[in-house]
Write the structure tokens for this entry.
Amino acid sequence: MKLANILFLVGALTLLNACDLFKKKGPDPLPGKRISVIVDSADTEVDPSADKEPLKLPAPYLNDFWLQPGALPVHAPQHLQLNKDFKEFMRYSIGSGGSDEQKLRVQPILIENNIISVDNEYRVKSFDITKKKVVWSKKLANADKEGNQFGGGIAFNAGKIYISTGFARVYSLNIDTGETLWEVALPAPSRAAPSVFGEYVIVPTIDNYITAYSSADGKRIWSYQSSQESAGFLGGANPAIAQGMVLAGFSSGEVAALRINNGQLRWNDNLSGGIQIDASASFAEINAPIVVDNNTAFVVGNANRMVAFNLKTGGRIWTRKIGSNNMPWLAGQYLFVLTNNAKLLALNTDDGKPLWASQLPIWQDSKEKREQFSWVGPVLAGGQLMVFNQDGLMKIFNPSTGALITEKKLGEPVLIPPIVANGQMFILFDNGDLVGYK
């Protein structure tokens, strides 16, 4: 067997293990010393001569919605309001939770007092968090006909909910009643939420297509296809929308800026050329939502490369050897990034240099270095930076210094980043429980 094929298989098996797709007990591990394949890049190290002054964050503000993954089309919710000593105030089940074979992956959204969720059987619920009751509930049509699929997501705009699905359909529902307004077949399954702006509903699919549909009737407006990639994570990210452009990342490592009205390519680049510092980095795809701040787009891929692009020209402002599948959190002049190597970083947005770094636990079995933790986040709210993992552990850091403040056991796996709105945080646990904190 060729060396390249061997490396590919090793990377694939490591990836599947890290994603917890298989839980069956395998054969006993081979004897001998284990050597970690995870090696940190120098770009995640803080310059010892750098200024050690605490970061000056923007003041927290009260947002009253979470429209889609990333809260806004630009994926930059900034510093949100939340009580530092938050306590649980509500809990209810959205329906079917995750299993060993199929984890719960759809992040809920919040509009005013209603939180909209989709469970693992594609049942959609609207829950009034003030009255603590279900407003409406419906099973998406055709969900049962297409087999046991997973993924997709939810977005909201102008009184309508848009839902992409793992069984290759996209829906528009009335937010007040749950009535289906239109339903359209996709070219392939979708693992990510749609992005919505004005009359455009932008849906990514696993065949590396981005397709724009009319929000009024679901008619196709345009499509763009990146190059094919044979393997990758079973994920994806909803595109960013800013200044009349759609910014999308693909499993090939391509990032493309497209005109929102006609899909014409403005510029593109590729993040697949980064140095590999862990086995899964052979998968080049971009799973983290692209973050836009004024005229800069921040893109991070799995292949250990993070780039700040000039939004208008596509020119590179800076490049760092950093890999992540989590959305960087922008706050003022700082980016908070949770890397694939479980390192939490604060970066300067001007040059990408780390200002502080905090290492999280990487291995569930630290002695044998087996079973990697799956971390999600960060989330910045109430002057605290929070990350979560599949053991139900929440770690809270000081965002100004990177110092650990505390950690809490939440009791159930957290595989989806929480959402924050109205001074409240909502965590969807993998068992299907949606819990509110304030």
About this structure: DSSP finds one helix and 35 strands in the chain. The longest strand covers residues 133-139. The longest helix spans residues 3-18.
